[in-house]
Amino acid sequence: MLVQRLVVTGAEIHLRNRRLSQSARGTQYWTPWSQESSAEEAVIRAKADGNQIVVAELAANSVRPEAFIPSFPVCLVLGGETDGVSQEVVNLADAVIEIPMRGMANSINVSTAAAIVLYELSRRAEAESSSAGV
Question: Is the pTM of this model over 0.85?
Answer without folding.
Answer: no
